[in-house]
From TrEMBL:
This is Cis-prenyltransferase. InterPro entries: UPP_synth-like (IPR001441), UPP_synth-like_CS (IPR018520), UPP_synth-like_sf (IPR036424). GO terms for molecular function: ditrans,polycis-polyprenyl diphosphate synthase [(2E,6E)-farnesyl diphosphate specific] activity. Residues 194-203 have a biased composition (Basic and acidic residues). Residues 237-249, 396-413 have a biased composition (Low complexity). It comes from Exophiala sideris. Pfam families: Prenyltransf (PF01255). The keyword Transferase applies. Keywords: Transferase. Its EC number is 2.5.1.87. The gene is RER2.
Amino acid sequence: MTSRHMSHVRRWLLSSPPAEWALNQLREMLIGALRQGPVPKHVAFVMDGNRRYAKTHRIETVEGHNLGFEALAKILEVCYKSGVTHVTIYAFSIENFKRTKYEVDALMDMAKIKLKQLVQHGDLLDRYGARIRILGQRELIKPDVLEAVDKAVAMTAHNTKCVLNVCFPYTSREEITSAVRETVQDFSRPIPDTNKERPSPFRQDRITNTIRSQQQQQQQHYPNPTYLQTPEKGLQSPSSSTTSLSSSFSEHDHDVSSVSTSTTLQHDDITSSGLTTPDKQKQPPLQYPSPELITPETLTSHMYTASDPPIDLLIRTSGVSRLSDFMLWQCHQDTQIVFLDVLWPDFDLWSFLPVLWEWQWRVRKVGDADQNEETMDERRKSTKSKSKVSNRGAKSSFVSESLSVSPVKVHAS
């Protein structure tokens, strides 16, 4: 039999109900075994190879993209079943706008179709509690496509367990630029002054009336006057004493009235003299946050994926070994980047499982190395502490031996 006939027989056998049941059971068993170990929390996919798949299989390009969406639906189910909480896919790049208008319109229509298909497969997202988020520049999206975007986001907004990030249209450089711009705007706002003096709760007329009442009380309880004597003139006559007493009272009344008048006219004198009140004083210079406070965490808080964990695993299909300006900031030193020589429509569980197993093996290896290093550090610390104790014991024994004096026997002659 030719290879073509063998492939038809294989497809017929695999499509039979017993074979499908056996494959489903095997799939569930493998995913269950996968959950027993560490599982990446955030996985990103660069879905590349749809057009080449269509060209290779001599089908329409749109059909190749439809097959790519079916592969995405299967992979999403595997990810959410195995315990992955965040999945990010690269759907449309800003660089694609540099192509011809015909090709850009075709890509936009394909994106619209994909989003509609995602909405139609809403039972898959609702089953695992996944919601859709669109990452990118909304102002570049056509109005009809933007309507499909908003509809897909609104239909899954109630889900909170898992997240599906659709980058459309997106480039990592634009995301980083936007984060830097927002950070500059935040650090260009002055720091609010929390130490400002609060205005006095008492009005000027109330202060004036209080001073007047205090002066009247002092006048009522004014102490008895004392009569002063001068050495030259001696004692004064009663008439002169009465005159001096009246004159002193008049002088005192004049002083009180002058004080009251000066107090009452104090605010007017200050205003007329050109002096400024505290409200009109020169404001202190504004203070701004120090640029030294900007850290990588500051920029991360302004990224599209600020609420998501860092990417643990990034996979690109079609055998192309480049990131194409995708998630450059989110990839860190522990991110495992895998380039697979398989087209995206052919990417399935059997292509995905070896990648997950390798990731688990690396994580366990790093964990064992860290654990061994911690054990060695503890052993070094215990060895150092034991050596210190032994050295102290040796020093104390040496000191005790040097200080001990043997008894001297004295013989009588």
